[in-house]
Amino acid sequence: MPRREITSGNWAFAEAMRQINPDVVAAYPITPSTDIPMKFADFVANGKVDTNFVTVESEHSAITASITASAAGARVMTASSANGVALMHEIFPIAGCFRTPIVFGLVNRCIGAPINIHCDHSDSMAERDAGWIHLYCEDAQEAYDTAILAIRLAEHKDVLSPVFVCQDGFITSHGFEPVEILEDSTVKAFVGERDADFPLLDVDNPVTYGSFAMSEYYFEIKRQQVEAMKNVLKVYDGVAKDYEAVSGRFYPKLDRYRTEDADFIVVVMSSASGVVKDVVDELREQGIKAGCLRVRMFRPFPADEVAEILAGAKAVAVLDRALSIGGTAPLAAEIKSALYDCGKNIPVQSCVYGLGGRDFFPQYARELFMDLAAGKVSREERYLGLLE
Amino acid sequence: MKDRGNSAEMGKPKKWQDVPMGGIAFGSSAEAVETGQWRSMRPVWDGEKCISCLLCWNQCPDRSILTDGNGKVTGIDTFYCKGCGICAHICPKKAIEMRPESEFTGPGAGAKGE
Predict the structure, then answer these.
(1) B58: domain range?
(2) Range of the domain at A278
(3) Are A11 and A84 contained in the same domain?
(4) B9 domain residue, yes or no
(5) Burial A156-170 (b: 16+ CB within 10 A, else e)
(6) Is B27 on the interface with A (CB under 8 A)?
(7) How far apart are CA A251 and CA A149, in angstroms?
(8) Cβ separation of A217 and B22 shorter than 8 Å?
(9) Could you give the residue ranges of the DSSP H alpha helices within chain A?
(10) Helices A35-45 & A9-20, crossing angle to 10 degrees?
């Protein structure tokens, strides 16, 4: 029987790691993801896992060791945040290209400067183009479930790509809430054993990873990664349904909340969506047709599905927890691009909120919906909760 | 063993689908690469001075120190040797000397060589 525990997003992710029992974990601690390797180190010390736990001297080494172990044929997990993620930047595209299916607990925290330990999405958004799958979780339960699901997605033969399992720093990672934990045997059966195609340690069939590819083939190898991401869109629902069969919980690429007949839709990611959904309920009672679309999968971006969901709306607002300084915020850029292709000129208000852990309150969502309803949509980016 | 596509006997791939995934190269292809061509300095080994301490064998970043299988150094394999000079530097008996490659391969080669 599954059990219910009061636990945090970090601890829930670490518990999933214990149950997955990866071959290798190479990690370096950084707030707010520190809990994950810390808790996992307990499991290692207490003999709860068989994992080779590699304590390295930096995040750069953590991800390098992870890729190497994964290329060797191991199942590998790790975690990091913020500037730790930024230090890994050089190495992330290598994981994408080598097709090493690492599952990575990314606990979102803003990138300094100014130095700040709290949540926004500037760390993961900076890795948008690294060839990794990005999944953003709303709460601790989802972080736990997604860690397990992501193993199967990453290792799918048509995908073979690493996955960021993102959760909001402190808000989710350190907030305690009830989480249903599956039985160890259920998780073990669901993830199975990794069956690597071309492992470095298969000495009878030697392979070389990381060889030179100049202008003759670099382009083709990148094109293959594009195909892997297209395949994610095709195979994801199957993996999610398999997970639903063992857990009772289904996680779609896009979490649509009362969007079907909605006139006004707010698009958001991660923990802030709970607030938006509450406000949707409130406004619905007042007769305003509000809806919320939570983007759970950001890479690959399910643009066609997004367009389909938003096509009937009169106006849309997009909430980004990251800036693209001097340009369009990342989620807003995707949404606008998706809507352009579907040929409907739906007004889109781009909003940035919550930078550096700034709280996101229901009144922000309420005012935003009321502005959409009043036709107050501007091409100017708006900043919610900013002192101005 | 998994299907390796047509890579084993492939000529040049014609389509992106035919290029090995992730740029993986099959087989131990480095064995066939004569990295000795990169060398500008050549180690010259003196069997009279050598005591077969194997420090050079241990430190060689390639596998260019030849032995007889019984722990005796027998010479240097210049097929892979890039001429880094670590062997000469580390040798306690100065039994290895780094000499310009031009003495062996350039105009007038052989005049001052072995």
Answers:
(1) 30-105
(2) 254-384
(3) yes
(4) no
(5) beebbbbbbbbbbbb
(6) yes
(7) 9
(8) no
(9) 9-20, 35-45, 59-71, 82-87, 92-98, 122-125, 140-155, 184-191, 218-247, 273-285, 303-310, 330-341, 362-373
(10) 40
Residue B69 touches partner A, C-beta closer than 8 Å: no
- As for how many domains chain A has, the answer is 2
B26 touches chain A (CB under 8 A): yes
Residue indicated by tokens 């949404």: A335
Task: Write down the pTM of the prediction.
Answer: 0.89
Beta strand pairing call for A348-353 and A315-320: parallel
CATH number at residue A85: 3.40.50.970
pLDDT tens digit string along A45-101? 999 999 999 999 999 999 999 999 999 999 999 999 999 999 999 999 999 999 999
Looking at the complex, report in whole angstroms how far the Cα of residue A60 sits from the nearest Cα belonging to chain B.
Answer: 21
Q: Check residue A279 and give left, alpha or beta (phi > 0: left; psi -120 to 50: alpha).
A: alpha
CATH number at residue A318: 3.40.50.920
Query: Across the interface, do A207 and B27 touch by the CB < 8 Å criterion?
Result: yes
- Which whole-number Å values give the CA distances from A106 to A200, A248, A376, in the listed order? 27, 25, 36
How many independent structural domains does chain B possess? 1
As given in the structure block, the two tokens for residue A317 are 């607002």
Residues of A with CB under 8 A from a CB of B: 97-99, 160, 197-198, 205-211, 213, 217, 219-221, 223-224
Interchain CB contact of B30 with A (< 8 Å): yes
* ipTM of the prediction greater than 0.95, yes or no: no
CA–CA min distance A53, chain B (Å): 26
CATH classification of the domain holding B69: 3.30.70.20
A372 and A242, same domain (yes or no): no
CB contact (8 A) between residue B22 and residue A197: no
Block mean pLDDT (10 aa), chain B, length 114? 48 90 83 90 97 97 93 95 97 97 75 44
Residues A207-243: tens digit of each pLDDT: 999 988 999 999 999 999 999 999 999 999 999 999 9
Whether A215 and A291 share a structural domain: no
Q: Is the dihedral of CA A173, A176, A182, A188 positive or negative?
A: positive
